[in-house]
Task: inverse folding
C-alpha cells in the first residue's frame, strides 16, 4: 500500500514553545485519515509543514511522493486545502474566491461547484466581509471540494457549521471515499466526526502521535455512558466486567461501560426489563483520559496527565 | 445602563493600545513649531532681515504651498512656515485615531466582543473622540508652551496651538461621521482623508485666487485665525460649530444603524468570477485598484492645481536676491518658476512614496490577516505572490508620478500656452522621483522578509526621510545625515541638470534591498502572525 503522507519524527519550535515534538504520521493513499487532537496539540502546525508554509526544525515529511517545501508548486496542483481559520478578502464575493482558488489550482469542476453551492445552501454573491464564520467555512469547503485533486487537507472543516451542514459535509466526504485514489486528511477535535468518516485515526497530543490505527483498534480505549430506566432492581450490574461508576437513583441507573463489554451488559439489562435508555458516545476527552490511564497502569513510560 | 456606560473603560483601553503611537504623534507635532521658531530667531536676528525675507514670501507659488504670510515677525513667519504642515498632520492623526477605535474595531468584530459587556451604545464613539481630544489638547498645550519658551508673544503662541488642536478636533469629527457611512475602516479613513486633502487644495486655490474659496476650507481658517498677526479669535467658533455638526451627524447615525453595518449600501458581488480573475496578479489588481484609483485622482488634482499656481510666478517680475536664495535652497537654480516646480515635484515624490509604502505593506497585511494561507496552498509560489503586490508598489507609483507630471504640465502649460512642451518637461520632473520611492519599497520588502513583525517601520523610514529633507537645512543638520535619505539625491527638475548616476544608484539600492527581502521571505515561515 502506498502512502500519501509520511511524517517522521517531526520537530517544530516557536520560540520557547515546542509545537511538534517528534511527530510521526502515516496516511495511506485512498483513505480518509482522522487527525485527532485537542486545541493546541499541533495539528495545524503539522498541516502547515505539509503545505510547505512552515519549515520543520528536524525530522522529515513526504507528501504525495515529494518534498513539501522544495516541490510545493507541483504538489499543490494535486491537493486542496481548507484552513482552520478561514479569512476571505472583504471585497471579493464568495464565488470569486471559489473560482480564483480553483483556477489557480489548474481548473475546477463548475458542475460540481454549482452542486456543492446548492447542497451547502450558500449564496456565492455575498462579499467576503458579509459572511458569517460558518459561511466563510462553506466558501473554503466548496473551493476545495470542487477541485479534482488527489489529496484533500481539511483543518477542522466543520467548525462554525450547523448540524445540518455538518451532515451535508459528511455525505460529501463519504462520496469522496467512493472515488478511487482520493486521500483525505481530516483534522478535528470532535471524535464523533472522525468516527463517522475515517478509515484510520492518528491521535496527537502535545506535539506527539499517541495512538494510531483504525477506530476498531481503539475500541479498548472508549467507554459509552449509559442512562437506563429499569423495570426491576439492577442486581449484579457492578460486578460485570467492563462496567464502571454505577449510580442508582429511583430506578434510574447511570454507568460507563467499555465498548468491548457493551453487548454482555445490554443482554443483562434486557433480562431485567428496559423502560428507557439513552447512551452517550465516548468523548475525545474521555478517550484521552482512558489512554493516559492505560499507559500509566501499564507503566510503559511516564506521561503527563491532562492539566 | 445609559448609552454612555463604559466610556471611561473604553477610553483607557484605547490609550493603552495607542500609548506608543499617540505619544510619537503628539511629541512630533508639538516639537516642530518650537524648533522652527528657534531656528528663525537665529536666522533672522534683525527687523531688516525679517522685512527682506517677508517681502519675498508674498509670491503666489509659496502662498499656494503654505498660505499667505500675515505677520512680519518671527512668530508670523513660524506660523506661516509650519502651519499648514501641522494642520495636515494633526488632521491625519485625528482621523486615523478615530477610525481605528471605531470602524476598525467594528470591522474586525472586536467591538462585538466589547459590545456584549456593559457598554452603552454611544460609548465606543465617545471614547474614540475623547482620546483624540486628549491628544489634541496635549498638542495645543505643548505647542503653546514651546513657543512661549522661545520668547514669542503669548497671544500668538496660544492661537497657533489652538488652531492646530481645533483642526485636529474638526477632522476627528469628520472621521466620526465617515466611520458610520462605510463598512470598511479603510474606506472610512479614505473618505475622511479625501476631505482633508480637498480642504488643502481648496485653500491653495483660494489663497492664490478668489479668497472666499479659502474661507470654505478649515485648513484655511486655521491660518485666518492669524497667529502673531492680530489674532481673530472668533474664527475658533467656526471650527467648533462645524465640528459639532459632524459630531451630531455621527451620533445620529450611530443611533440609527446596526453594529457592523454601514449606511452606504453593501452591494452583492457576481455569482461567478470574471474569466480574468485567474492569477495572483489579477487578484492583486482587485485588491489594489481602489487605492490606486483614489491616489491617481488625488495626485492629478494636486498636479493640476500646483501647475496652475506656478504660472502666477511669471507675474512677479522683480526677483530679488533673497527670493532667489530661498528658492534655491528649496528647489533649483534656474528661474523662479522652475525652482517652484522642482520644489513641488520634490514634495510630490515624497507624497507618492506614501502610496509606495502602503502598497508594499499590503503584502504583509495579506499575511497577517491569514488570507495568504489559502493562496499559498495552491500552486502559487511565494515569490510569485510577493511579485504580484510589489508590481503595484513599483509601477503604481510610476503611474501616480506620471499622472502628477502630466496634470502639472497641463495646468501650467494651458496658462502659458505651451501644453506640449510643459507636459514633457514636468513628466520628466515627476518621474525622476521614482527611484527614490523604490528605495522605500525595497526597504519595506526587506522588513517583510527579514523582520515581518516590524514591517510598519517602513512608514518610519518615510517620515524620517521627509523630515530630514524638509527640515534638515532649516535645522542645520550635517550633509551626510540628510544624504542618508533617498530623496536628497533626486535631481531637482525642471531647472537643474539631469544626472543619471544617482538614479542608477538609487535603483540599485532598491533592487538590492528588495532581493534581500524576497530571499528572506522565501526562507522563512509563512504566516508569521
Result:
Amino acid at each position: 500500500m502506498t502512502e500519501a503522507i509520511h511524517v517522521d519524527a517531526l520537530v517544530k519550535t516557536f520560540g520557547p514553545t515546542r509545537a511538534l515534538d517528534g511527530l510521526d504520521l502515516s496516511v495511506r493513499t485512498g483513505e480518509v485519515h482522522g487527525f485527532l487532537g485537542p486545541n493546541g496539540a499541533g495539528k495545524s502546525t503539522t498541516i502547515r509543514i505539509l503545505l510547505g508554509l512552515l519549515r520543520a526544525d528536524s525530522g522529515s515529511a513526504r507528501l504525495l511522493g515529494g518534498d513539501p517545501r522544495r516541490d510545493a508548486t507541483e504538489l499543490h496542483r494535486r491537493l486542496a486545502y481548507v484552513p482552520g481559520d478561514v479569512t476571505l478578502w472583504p471585497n471579493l464575493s464568495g464565488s470569486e474566491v471559489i473560482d480564483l482558488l480553483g483556477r489557480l489550482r489548474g481548473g475546477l469542476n463548475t458542475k460540481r461547484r454549482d452542486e456543492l453551492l446548492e447542497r451547502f445552501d450558500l449564496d456565492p454573491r455575498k462579499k467576503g466581509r458579509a459572511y458569517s464564520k460558518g459561511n466563510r467555512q462553506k466558501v473554503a469547503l466548496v473551493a476545495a471540494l470542487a477541485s479534482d485533486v488527489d489529496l484533500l487537507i481539511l483543518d477542522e472543516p466543520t467548525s462554525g457549521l450547523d448540524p445540518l451542514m455538518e451532515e451535508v459535509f459528511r455525505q460529501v466526504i463519504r462520496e469522496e471515499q467512493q472515488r478511487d485514489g482520493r486521500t483525505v486528511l481530516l483534522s478535528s477535535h470532535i471524535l464523533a466526526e472522525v468516527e463517522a468518516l475515517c478509515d484510520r485515526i492518528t491521535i496527537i497530543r502535545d506535539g506527539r502521535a499517541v495512538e494510531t490505527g483504525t477506530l476498531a483498534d481503539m475500541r479498548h480505549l472508549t467507554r459509552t455512558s449509559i442512562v437506563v430506566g429499569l423495570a426491576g432492581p439492577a442486581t449484579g450490574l457492578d460486578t460485570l466486567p467492563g462496567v464502571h461508576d454505577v449510580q442508582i437513583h429511583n430506578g434510574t441507573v447511570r454507568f460507563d461501560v467499555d465498548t468491548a463489554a457493551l453487548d454482555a451488559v445490554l443482554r443483562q439489562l434486557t433480562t431485567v426489563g428496559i423502560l428507557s435508555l439513552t447512551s452517550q458516545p465516548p468523548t475525545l476527552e474521555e478517550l484521552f483520559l482512558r489512554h493516559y490511564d492505560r499507559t500509566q497502569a501499564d507503566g510503559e513510560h511516564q506521561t503527563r496527565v491532562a492539566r | 445602563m445609559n448609552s454612555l456606560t463604559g466610556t471611561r473603560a473604553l477610553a483607557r483601553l484605547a490609550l493603552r493600545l495607542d500609548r506608543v503611537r499617540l505619544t510619537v504623534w503628539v511629541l512630533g507635532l508639538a516639537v516642530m513649531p518650537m524648533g522652527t521658531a528657534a531656528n528663525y530667531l537665529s536666522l533672522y536676528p534683525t527687523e531688516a532681515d525679517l522685512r527682506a525675507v517677508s517681502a519675498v514670501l508674498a509670491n503666489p507659488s509659496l502662498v499656494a504651498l503654505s498660505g499667505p504670510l500675515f505677520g512680519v515677525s518671527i512668530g508670523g513667519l513660524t506660523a506661516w512656515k509650519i502651519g499648514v504642515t501641522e494642520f495636515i498632520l494633526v488632521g491625519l492623526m485625528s482621523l486615523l485615531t478615530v477610525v481605528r477605535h471605531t470602524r476598525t474595531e467594528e470591522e474586525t468584530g472586536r467591538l462585538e466582543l466589547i459590545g456584549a459587556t456593559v457598554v452603552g451604545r454611544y460609548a465606543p464613539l465617545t471614547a474614540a473622540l475623547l482620546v483624540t481630544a486628549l491628544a489634541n489638547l496635549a498638542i495645543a498645550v505643548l505647542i503653546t508652551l514651546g513657543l512661549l519658551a522661545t520668547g514669542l508673544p503669548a497671544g500668538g503662541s496660544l492661537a497657533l496651538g489652538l488652531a492646530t488642536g481645533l483642526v485636529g478636533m474638526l477632522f476627528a469629527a469628520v472621521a466620526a461621521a465617515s466611520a458610520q457611512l462605510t463598512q470598511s475602516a479603510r474606506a472610512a479613513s479614505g473618505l475622511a482623508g479625501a476631505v482633508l486633502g480637498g480642504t488643502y487644495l481648496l485653500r491653495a486655490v483660494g489663497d492664490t485666487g478668489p479668497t472666499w474659496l479659502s474661507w470654505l476650507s478649515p485648513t484655511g481658517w486655521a491660518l485666518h485665525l492669524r497667529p502673531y498677526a492680530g489674532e481673530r479669535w472668533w474664527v475658533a467658533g467656526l471650527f467648533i460649530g462645524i465640528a459639532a455638526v459632524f459630531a451630531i451627524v455621527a451620533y445620529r447615525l450611530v443611533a440609527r444603524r446596526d453594529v457592523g453595518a454601514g449606511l452606504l449600501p453593501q452591494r452583492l458581488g457576481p455569482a461567478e468570477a470574471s474569466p480574468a480573475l485567474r492569477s495572483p496578479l489579477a487578484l492583486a489588481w482587485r485588491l489594489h485598484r481602489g487605492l490606486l484609483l483614489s491616489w491617481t485622482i488625488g495626485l492629478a488634482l494636486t498636479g493640476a492645481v500646483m501647475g496652475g499656481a506656478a504660472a502666477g510666478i511669471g507675474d512677479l517680475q522683480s526677483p530679488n536676491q533673497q527670493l532667489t536664495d530661498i528658492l534655491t535652497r528649496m528647489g533649483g537654480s534656474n528661474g523662479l518658476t522652475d525652482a517652484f516646480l522642482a520644489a513641488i515635484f520634490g514634495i510630490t515624490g515624497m507624497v507618492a512614496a506614501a502610496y509606495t509604502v502602503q502598497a508594499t505593506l499590503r503584502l504583509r497585511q495579506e499575511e497577517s490577516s491569514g488570507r495568504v494561507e489559502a493562496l499559498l496552498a495552491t500552486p502559487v509560489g511565494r515569490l510569485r505572490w510577493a511579485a504580484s503586490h510589489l508590481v503595484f508598489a513599483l509601477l503604481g507609483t510610476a503611474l501616480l508620478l506620471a499622472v502628477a507630471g502630466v496634470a502639472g504640465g497641463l495646468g501650467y502649460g494651458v496658462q502659458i500656452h505651451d501644453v506640449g512642451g510643459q507636459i514633457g518637461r514636468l513628466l520628466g520632473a515627476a518621474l525622476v522621483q521614482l527611484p527614490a520611492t523604490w528605495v522605500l519599497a525595497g526597504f519595506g520588502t526587506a522588513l517583510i522578509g527579514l523582520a515581518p513583525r516590524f514591517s510598519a517601520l517602513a512608514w518610519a523610514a518615510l517620515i524620517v526621510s521627509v523630515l530630514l529633507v524638509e527640515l534638515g537645512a532649516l535645522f542645520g543638520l550635517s550633509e551626510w545625515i540628510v544624504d542618508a535619505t533617498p530623496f536628497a539625491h533626486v535631481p531637482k527638475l525642471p531647472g537643474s541638470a539631469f544626472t543619471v548616476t544617482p538614479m542608477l544608484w538609487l535603483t540599485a539600492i532598491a533592487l538590492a534591498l528588495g532581493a534581500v527581502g524576497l530571499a528572506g521571505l522565501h526562507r522563512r515561515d509563512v504566516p508569521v502572525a
